[in-house]
Amino acid sequence: EPLIRKDIADICKRIKSLKGIDTLGITTNGIVLNRKLQDLKNAGVDSLNISLDTLDPMKFEIMTRRKGFDHVIKSIEGALELGFTTVKVNCVVIRGLNDKEIIDFVKWTKDKPIEMRFIEYMPFDGNRWNFEKFVSFTEMIENVKKEFPMLMKLEAGPNDTAKVWKIDGHLGTLGFITSMSNHFCGDCNRIRLTADGNFKVCLFDQKEVSLRDAMRNGISDEDLIQIIGKAVWAKKASHAGMFEISQTKNRPMIKIEVIKPK
Length: 262
What we know:
Elements: H1 8-16, E1 25-28, H2 33-42, E2 47-51, H3 57-64, H4 69-82, E3 86-93, H5 102-108, E4 115-120, H6 137-147, E5 151-153, E6 163-167, E7 173-177, E8 192-193, E9 198-200, E10 209-210, H7 211-216, H8 221-233, H9 242-246
Helix pairs in contact: 1-2, 2-4
């Protein structure tokens, strides 16, 4: 959670000032976001991804093991009021837990200009992934179409990771992250730098390259670029299937950050 850093606004301001940085986004659980929205806006943050897996306050406590549902809602509303360029709400859909809330989330977009994103349940260390809990994009979109038959698919932008749809008359849109049932590896341009300085070219690849160690050993910028380039060129055409991934040792999602190149 990036917002536990007291100097997060200063970090964002320094990153945004770097040559070549066009947009800056933050992914957060939204618990303390509302208190820091203005500082982040002033620091140049353009986009917010806020995690919210349920609209039920009691279920929220069960899923997150903490109180704070009202804080997250206030953060989303506050972000919209301040006019951030993009506000996305991320919901990981898990059968038997929150899959029946999809339509409630969709209705939420009628009066809110958010991108409500439904994410397929992905296997990571520590999240007790089980195929029986998996809800595919196809099943999700079919359920939405039953309630909203006028659902329209929007044209995807370059390197988009979400399939985006819109309901006529709704201010917001719907995005579906289909990493497991319909991967988008060929268009994905995401690279990741972990908090401990490791470089990952794919979320589901256990291989990592330590840039921290290289920098501490005095590597030049030119040689560092070579290391990064070599890792990128070695990226596989696609990641493994969900069952193989579930058997692979890989760090939990909460220990991975994302960088989106231009």
